[in-house]
Design goal:
- By secondary structure, the chain is of the alpha+beta class.
- Helices cover 30% and strands 19% of the residues.
- The chain has a single domain, classed as 2-Layer Sandwich (HIT family, subunit A).
- A five-stranded antiparallel β-sheet has the order 1-2-3-5-4.
- β1 and β2 form a beta hairpin.
- Bound molecules: adenosine monophosphate.
- Adenosine monophosphate binds next to loops.
């Protein structure tokens, strides 16, 4: 089964990249719950987080992103969630807590995405 995240990994669908290495990719969620709402996925397809081959490395990368977000926001509360109801391709939600958290989702416009990327992206 091909999901939207398979297509993001293959480059068929664009995304706003936050972090990338040989094994993992992180990008902005298109319907964010807060500024910097990020999804971290493995490049090798896995259905659930628990199926990810390099599981330990996966969570090390999640921590690296969380540490970066703590630094750029000045807030050490960064929420991490695993849901998977909508997209059956392993992904970790990383949500830097802010005043919009819990107020529902917004739509990520290109302007807003570029503004957020300036603050949150780990790609130079
Ligand atoms: P869930 O599977 O319930 O953890 O949610 C899947 C998440 O993927 C939701 O927060 C969606 O907004 C997000 N999402 C779906 N399609 C895309 C996309 N093309 N780019 C970025 N995020 C997406």
């Amino acid at each position: 089964m091909s999901t939207v995240f398979h297509k993001i990994v293959s480059g068929e669908i664009p995304c706003y990249k936050i972090y990338e290495d040989d094994d993992f990719l992180a990008f902005l969620d298109i319907n964010p719950k807060c500024d910097g709402h990020t999804l971290l996925i493995p490049k090798t397809p896995a259905k659930w987080v628990w199926d990810v081959e390099k599981y330990t490395e996966y969570f090390e990368v999640a921590r690296k992103i969380v540490r970066h977000y703590q630094k750029v926001t000045g807030n050490d509360l960064v929420v991490m969630k695993v849901v998977g109801v909508d997209v059956p391709y392993a992904h970790i939600h990383i949500l830097p807590y802010d005043e919009n958290y819990g107020r529902g989702r917004s739509t990520l416009t290109p302007e807003k995405a570029h503004q957020i990327m300036k603050k949150f992206s780990m790609i130079n």
